[in-house]
Specification:
The complex is a heterodimer. Chain A is an all-alpha fold. Chain A is built from 21 helices and five strands. The chains are: A mainly alpha, B mainly beta.
Chain lengths: 534, 1112
């Protein structure tokens, strides 16, 4: 009996053990919560779970991560705008010589969707009614971030963002712009009302890298952004362009106008980074001075050259720039002028001087741009730029009616030279000439705007596609396989390979809305300047 | 009472053993006093003297003893009836410690147990049933530590008392006990465990089963077979020896990771690697992050199995199918390699020493040209990094890879000590593995210490088995893959016609920076396409260290509740702490190290605690029916943590400390992580046996997995059923068939999802603020399930001389979890989905012969064959939005420019797609601007095939003749494709022989037109070039390993050594056939990505060496 009892006791212990085991799965939820990540419940304090997504939006308009910025903007728009060119001899066929690098050209799309749109959607989803001011900021940042994306590709997913995993339809660019303006309306109205109701309140301060949480600055930003977007579409929808531009100028909150209004990614609120361009030019040595920059800056004897670029490190010790669109297989350009940027230079998001050039162009077009003329806005813009860059404007700079872009000499390979008389030299002077043609004054405005907003290649490329100014040197080598006209320049980037793989039906709607083949030669909707080559 | 009982028992044993004695052949003793005469004594507490008198009286022997020598008045109790004299004397000896010697008609009684006068020299031979001498059979005296081993002739000599019992044990053979008695010569025949009713194998959870009852294929390899030609990671020694097993080694040198796949890749997202189980308990795989491509920073970090000391291995069982492993749960769906480690042996003390030294030489290095100098466009230019210059001047130096590679030396020294009594056995071992790699500076050093104690307590009812293993291992500069921190990039791309040796002095003092800076063909501040650096600088000034400390401790207690039921509890702790660091000295390419240098450090811990409780019963219900079952519960808890940082150094050059690291850039602590996962399981396994030839095997398991929290159910169940029939026992078979069996089984194995994939949204922090995870959390996920069916047969002919087995299997893995890319506009970039059906089917088999040819040449030969067909049947269909989106293609992560690995419906898993020429409708290469055009769009890459072989053959042989033994393994893999991206780089830089040949021919002919070689290769070569042009057949046949051994006669050592063997060994000796320009069985990565790709991987090595093993 005793042994039987013993045996059954052991069995009972065993069964009990199993029971205890299977009942202790209750802590599985806790175990399966990653302690290295933050849950929503953990981030309720100070509304981090809502506003905490906004800093990421500010960070991803022009990424402070060098390798992201490099393919997001630098190896496309910064080169296509004529600002910069790459000395890299290992790139082979690439964007610069019109071989569209699929592996590079995903980045702007991906960053826009994965950061800007994604963060906005979280704010939108989680915000309570009283958090609408955060939603307003998210909307402004969304428009600022995503207009760059649509300007690069044309139709993109926008209104149907997040609606499905494998099929997200693309919106036509016109619809996207319409939505941009509506979203800016909402943002401006919300912030205006918020400031009125809560004077002095700065709930966004702990999150804001740009303006220290000052919603008044954000209203200026939104207005200037509206003005910029209006100008983008001036050839595609002139009526809306004028209406939106005048609305932007008329808003009592004003526009960005002084250097202190510049939207910069400041190293505050715990953010530290090294300027992406600094590592791309110094570390990677993948980007240098572009030939049109040297041609125009030196043609104008413009002292901003020394603020923008470094002298070459070879014996000549002068500025040496690279013409884009070559086949470079050897390190002949590695000593050429690098960008004059330091690790601590803040990333530039929106340069305040742009607002003057936008108003100058609006005034030139006969729009009501407030007090001032095309000339006064133009000159104010040039002065604002010099002030912004901390360079004193040479005496008589604005009165220089003779200087034009100088011929380009390639010290490493004379066959790349652009000699005097070449039609691709930017043949416009500085001095305002009320008697000059509309196109000449537009060229003048855009050329100075181009010099002022450097290094914002994204906006400069948009201006070049829209107006054709300042004139760019055509590529010497065109590897586009006939899809991009050499004299017609690159008009957009093709859709990303990952989208073709993961959202093929969506891409098909995008191509349909684009109205042309998905390559670098097809113009986006707003690219309708009749003077621009077909 | 007690004593009487004992005596009764002993007498009974003696009766049973009686007939055994007839095997022994007495030589010259007369029948009167040979001890077989019987006598009957029944006394209780009688003086010894009277008992001895009684013995003398009944046998007629003259009993001689000295009363001063021992206490003749000692009271003894004995109760025997008609027992042989020797047994009665043995019993008396047992009670008194006296010794008896029979001499003619005298019985001499003496006291000293150590008296050599009493001990008699016994000798004999041990043979198997075929008459072949068995070498190394352990012969011991029962209950003592005295013992020896048989020599090469199977002979042994030992001093023993007539009362002793000799115990013969040998792996794979049945233990045998023979009483000494008066015999001095023993010719013992040991029967193999094979083909007998008692043949047992270790199966899942360490449960010992009769091999007859197995309904699935299991192949066993003895520890000895691993010693033919040792590898620092023993699992590499299984190559060619096991059917259905495919081994792919990382090209990362000694102790590197090994991918071991049984019966084909099954899991798309997870691992297809086998599960390793040591003594019934799963081992942590400790797989390290694998190189991720061209810009991979960290080399392979080795894997957990390479930590194991092969000298501790008693045997290995390979459980190929899922059914074999249903009881291990999830991780075992890919098959199990079951390792049984050594224990101390009762009754013998054995010390072994095994020393293995090999010299390793690189084989299959790329052919570099020696015709054209540094430069471009046929013009020599000493600032170019290419070798497309003019013809070299006469006598120009041309380094070859052999200038860089050194002869690697690998030494493995192992010491083991085994001792024990019937009650308590102890095993201790120490092993050191030291390898100097073929790349200078690469050092691998591993130390293993193990101790194991097995004891019987509580009247032998409780068996306690305690073991601990401690491993400490350091690796410096493990060979990298990819272009960063890899000296081979620089060695292979070094400009031709230039003196390489001048850079052996890799650094010199720089006055402007006041530190040493590298000497190299380009300044460290210069950007370069592929970041070549002085290879010696890389080895000495970009050092990478990997350290590992691992403790494995096991407690196992087994309690026999009664004769047919026992309860076992086990706990195993496996704790591994690893560190890696990478120091980049100032002067390393500034792209990676900034100006002051760079330092990255990571420490990680992986702790696994496994415990289980098993109730095992084995009962004969009736004469014909037997039930053998196990009921168990287990809990496995895995905790992983890591803490790491990295960044450029601040102000102090080359001060590698966290205080000097710039931690403000990016996310320096991104390596920091902490996870815990737990699996709780209940399982049962029951075997029903009928007449010991028909067996039904049913298993069931239920897992509760913490990783399934937040899904519909955290529990999943999977059963298996198997049937086995030993035909040769069921029917009368012709005599030449000694064994015949058929078996079939069906199994389900479930597999949980990884931790955290179902957890509701969690955020990472980026610069202190929230960042949403881009992987969509889904609560709808389910565990994976593999359905597996196999049918097989086993035959043995002519007294087991010929063996044959064959298996057909078919598996489908469903509900596979994989991470599928979604549109970036979907709010996430990927989501985990359950989908997929990967099918594997195949045949495998082996044919073996063992026997004796002519006079004493023993030949053992096994031929294995494996064929696996893998096919992706389905991937995923999304119906979430009303529209059905069918995903037919999945791209593995880590694509490398011109190379992409995919799973595509209708094709085998892991198909390689590569960039190729753009072709027109009639198949001609499109040429534009004088250059061939490429596809370039990854979506349109060419399918170049699959790295897995169509079939594999292996042939192992061992010969033994007198003192000599010879063993070798030939194996071949047929079919499969691999991609040589290294070659593409070499062509682009013009260092390859192919590029020189092209120039000799005046260019490369495309569509009938010659294209300049450099222009052609600038498009076709390089990592983004026409990689499909660099695809090669992976078919190869090689002499995998060989050894020639000689057993030195032990009498040379005056019997102080029981055996000593010296051997010449070789691994990877030569290829009978090879198409690819590198060894296609080495790989960049041992996980599922980057298969069949070489990218500046270290070439495989040929190892020649010698081995000395001694046993004392």
């Amino acid at each position: 009996m005793k042994t039987i009892y013993k045996k059954s006791r052991i069995l009972w212990v065993f069964v009990l053990g199993l029971f205890v085991m299977s009942s202790c799965t209750k802590n599985f939820d806790a175990l399966n919560t990653n302690p290295s990540k933050v849950t929503q419940a953990q981030s309720l304090g100070d509304f981090q779970y809502i506003a905490g997504f906004l800093p990421d939006m500010e960070k991803n308009i022009a990424s402070p991560t060098d390798y992201i910025y490099q393919t997001q903007q630098n190896l496309n728009a910064d080169i296509f705008s004529g600002y910069m060119a790459s000395p890299d001899f290992g790139f082979g066929p690439n964007n610069a010589n019109y071989f569209m690098r699929y592996d590079w050209n995903n980045q702007a799309f991906d960053t826009g969707n994965q950061s800007i749109m994604n963060d906005w959607s979280k704010v939108e989803q989680l915000a309570r009614p009283q958090d609408s001011h955060f939603v307003a900021i998210a909307l402004i940042l969304k428009v600022e971030g995503m207009h760059r994306v649509t300007d690069i590709y044309g139709p993109i997913p926008y209104s149907k963002y997040g609606s499905n995993a494998f099929f997200i339809p693309y919106d036509a660019q016109q619809d996207i712009y319409t939505r941009f303006f509506t979203e800016l309306d909402t943002a401006v109205n919300t912030l205006t009302a918020y400031i009125k109701a809560n004077p002095g309140s700065q709930p966004f301060k702990p999150y804001d890298y740009f303006y220290g949480g000052d919603y008044k600055q954000w209203l200026k930003f939104a207005n200037t952004l509206r003005l910029r977007l209006a100008m983008h579409i001036v050839y595609a929808d002139p009526a809306t362009a004028q209406k939106q531009a005048e609305k932007a100028v008329a808003d009592p909150n004003g526009l960005l106008s002084t250097a202190s209004d510049d939207a910069l990614l400041n190293q505050v609120n715990g953010l530290t980074y090294q300027n992406s361009l600094w590592n791309i030019t110094n570390g990677y040595q993948d980007i240098s001075m572009g030939a049109p920059m040297q041609s125009i800056l030196e043609g104008y004897h413009d002292p901003r050259e020394g603020v923008y670029f470094l002298k070459s490190t070879d014996a000549a010790n002068t500025y040496e720039a690279i013409r884009s669109g070559l086949t470079i297989t050897t390190p002949i350009y590695i000593k050429f002028s690098l960008l004059n940027v330091s690790a601590t230079t803040p990333m530039q998001i929106f340069n305040a001087s742009e607002s003057y050039f936008l108003r100058a162009e609006g005034a030139l077009r006969g729009w009501n741009m407030g007090a001032g003329t095309a000339q006064s806005f133009y000159e104010a813009g040039v002065m604002a730029s010099f002030a912004d860059k901390g360079v004193s404007m040479p005496a008589g700079y604005l009165a220089d009616a003779t200087s034009v872009a100088q011929p380009y000499v390639d010290p490493a390979d004379g066959s790349n030279n652009i000699p005097a008389g070449n039609p691709y030299l930017n043949n416009i002077t500085i001095k305002w000439d009320a008697g000059a043609s509309f196109e000449q004054n537009l060229q003048r405005i855009i050329t100075q705007k181009w010099l002022a907003i450097y290094p914002d290649g994204e906006e400069a490329w948009t201006d070049f596609r829209r107006t054709g100014y300042p004139k760019q040197f055509i590529v010497k080598v065109n590897n586009s396989g006939g899809t991009i006209s050499t004299t017609g320049y690159v008009r957009r980037l093709p859709y990303s390979t990952s989208e073709n793989q993961n959202n093929p039906k969506g891409v098909a709607t995008g191509v349909a809305a684009l109205g042309g083949p998905d390559n670098g030669g097809t113009k986006v909707w707003w690219d309708k300047n009749p003077l621009e080559p077909k | 009472m007690k004593i009487t009982l004992q005596i009764l028992k002993i007498c009974c044993v003696a009766v049973l053993l009686g007939p055994v004695g007839t095997i022994a052949q007495p030589e010259t003793l007369s029948t009167v006093n040979d001890g077989s005469a019987t006598l009957t004594i029944n006394v209780v507490k009688k003086p010894l003297e009277s008992v001895l008198a009684s013995v003398g009286k009944q046998t007629g022997l003259d009993v001689h003893y000295d009363r001063n020598e021992f206490n003749s008045e000692k009271l003894i109790t004995i109760n025997c009836k008609n027992l042989p004299v020797k047994d009665v004397l043995a019993e008396i000896a047992g009670q008194t410690g006296l010794h008896f010697e029979l001499f003619k008609n005298k019985l001499i009684v003496s006291a000293s147990s150590t008296s050599s006068a009493i001990l008699q020299k016994v000798q004999g031979t041990v043979k198997d049933s075929t008459g072949q001498a068995l070498i190394g059979v352990s012969v011991s005296i029962k209950g003592t530590t005295t013992g020896t081993q048989t020599d090469v002739n199977g002979a042994f000599t030992l001093n023993a008392n007539p009362t002793d019992v000799l115990v013969f044990t040998y792996i794979g053979y049945q233990r045998k006990e023979v009483p000494v008695g008066t015999n001095t010569t023993f010719n013992v025949v040991m029967s193999t465990a094979a083909g007998t009713l008692q043949e047992v194998v270790v199966t899942a959870l360490g449960i010992v089963k009769s091999s007859r009852s197995l309904s699935y294929d299991q192949q066993t390899i003895s520890g000895k077979e691993l010693e033919v030609a040792k590898d620092p990671s023993f699992v590499n020694s299984l190559d060619g020896k096991v059917s259905g097993l495919q081994i792919t080694q990382s090209s990362s040198g000694a102790g590197g990771s090994t991918k071991v796949v049984l019966r084909g890749n099954k899991s798309i997202f997870g691992s297809s690697n086998v599960l390793y189980v040591v003594d019934g308990i799963p081992l942590q795989p400790l797989t390290s992050a694998q190189p991720s491509g061209v810009f991979s920073y960290a080399p392979d970090g080795g894997d957990g199995i390479s930590n194991i000391n092969p000298d501790d291995i008693e045997s290995i069982s390979v459980l190929k199918g899922a059914s074999a492993s249903a009881l291990y749960g999830s991780a075992a769906a890919n098959g199990v390699i079951l390792i049984t480690t050594k224990k101390g042996k009762a009754g013998e003390t054995t010390v072994t020493f095994n020393s293995n030294t090999t010299f390793d030489k690189a084989v299959k290095t790329p052919k570099l040209q020696t015709e054209y100098a540094r430069g471009d466009n046929d013009t020599t230019n000493n600032s170019s990094l290419n070798s497309y210059g003019a013809k070299e001047a006469a006598g120009s130096p041309n380094g070859q890879p052999s200038d860089f590679f050194q002869t690697g030396v690998t030494t493995i020294n192992a010491f083991t000590l085994s001792t024990g009594t019937e009650k308590n056995q102890t095993y201790v071992s120490y092993a050191n593995t030291h390898a100097d790699g073929i790349e200078p500076g690469n050092i691998f050093n591993k130390n293993n210490i193990s101790i194991r104690n097995t004891s019987k307590l509580m009247k032998d009812k409780l068996t306690l088995d305690l073991s601990a293993n401690y491993i400490f291992q350091n690796t410096t500069d493990r060979p990298a893959s990819g272009t960063y921190f890899n000296p081979l990039t620089s060695v292979y791309l070094f400009p031709r016609g230039t003196d390489f040796n001048q850079y052996k002095n890799y650094e010199s003092f720089d006055v402007t920076r006041n530190i040493n800076l590298p000497n190299w063909i380009e300044p460290y501040t210069s950007p370069s396409g592929d970041d070549t650096e002085n290879p010696y600088w890389i080895q000495n000034r970009n050092p990478n260290h990997q350290g590992l400390n691992r403790l494995l401790a096991t407690i196992s207690a087994k309690y026999d509740i009664n004769s047919w039921l026992n309860l076992q509890g086990r706990v195993k702790v496996d704790k591994a702490d690893q560190t890696t660091d990478q120091e980049l000295y100032a002067g390393s390419t500034t792209l990676l190290s900034g100006m002051a240098g760079n330092y990255a450090y990571n420490t990680s811990g992986a702790n696994q605690v496994y415990s289980d409780l098993l109730l095992t019963g084995n009962k004969d219900i009736s004469h014909d029916f037997n039930i053998n079952g196990t009921l168990g519960a287990s809990i496995q808890d895995n905790q992983n943590s890591s803490l790491g940082f990295g960044g450029h150094l601040g102000n102090i050059d080359n001060y590698f400390n966290v205080s000097n690291v710039i931690l403000t850039n990016g996310d320096p602590f991104n390596q920091t992580n902490k996870t815990e996962a737990q699996t709780q399981s209940l399982f049962a396994s029951v075997d029903f046996g009928y007449k010991k030839y028909l067996f039904l095997d049913v298993t069931a398991r239920n897992d509760w997995s913490s990783a399934l929290a937040y899904t519909a159910s955290n529990s999943f169940f999977y059963p298996s059923v198997g049937l086995s029939d030993v035909l040769s026992s069921m029917f009368k078979m012709p005599d030449f068939i000694s064994y015949s069996k058929i078996r079939l089984s069906y199994t389900d194995v479930g597999n949980s999802i990884p931790a955290f994939v179902s957890t509701p949204a969690q955020y990472t922090l980026s610069s202190g603020f929230l960042n949403q995870s881009l992987t969509e959390p889904l609560g709808s996920l389910k565990p994976e399930i593999t359905h597996s069916f196999e049918i097989g047969t086993e035959w043995r002919f002519v007294n087991d001389h010929i063996t044959f087995d064959a298996t057909y299997y078919h598996t489908n893995s469903y509900n596979q979890l994989f991470n599928i890319a979604t549109s970036g506009a979907s709010q996430f970039t990927s989501r985990y989905v359950n989908g997929g059906n990967v099918q594997n089917e195949g045949f495998e088999g082996s044919l073996g012969y063992n026997g004796i040819i002519g006079s004493g040449l023993r030949w053992n030969s096994t031929f294995t064959f494996s064929l696996n067909r893998n096919k992706v049947i389905a991937l995923y269909t999304d119906n979430s939005s009303g529209t059905s989106t069918v995903i037919n293609q999945f791209t593995f992560p880590n694509t490398v420019n011109g190379y992409q690995l995919e799973a595509v419906v209708g094709k085998p898993f892991g198909e390689i797609y590569a960039n190729d020429f753009k072709r027109d409708a009639s198949g001609n290469i499109v040429v534009s601007g004088g250059l061939p055009q490429l596809i370039n769009n990854a979506n349109d890459y060419k399918d170049v095939g699959n790295s897995n072989p169509n079939f594999m053959l292996g042939w192992t042989n061992s010969f033994r003749y007198k003192q000599f033994d010879l063993a070798f393994t030939v194996d071949g893999r047929f079919g499969g494709e691999v991609v040589d991206m290294t070659g593409a780089y070499l062509d682009a830089y013009g260092t390859s022989q192919a590029s020189a040949t092209a120039r000799d021919n005046g260019g490369v002919t495309v569509n009938g037109t010659k294209i300049d070689a450099q222009a052609y290769y600038s498009v076709v070569g390089g990592r983004s070039g026409a990689i499909a042009e660099y695809a090669y057949s992976a078919t190869n046949i090689r002499l995998r390993e060989a050894s020639l051994g000689y057993n030195i006669p032990v009498n040379l050592f005056h019997d102080k050594v029981s055996s000593i063997r010296v051997a010449f060994t070789g691994r990877n000796l030569f290829f009978f056939y090879l198409k690819a320009p590198y060894d296609p069985e080495t790989t960049l990565s041992t996980d599922n990505t980057l298969q069949g790709l070489d990218l500046f991987g270290q070439p495989s090595t040929r190892s020649l060496g010698f081995n000395v093993s001694a046993r004392f």
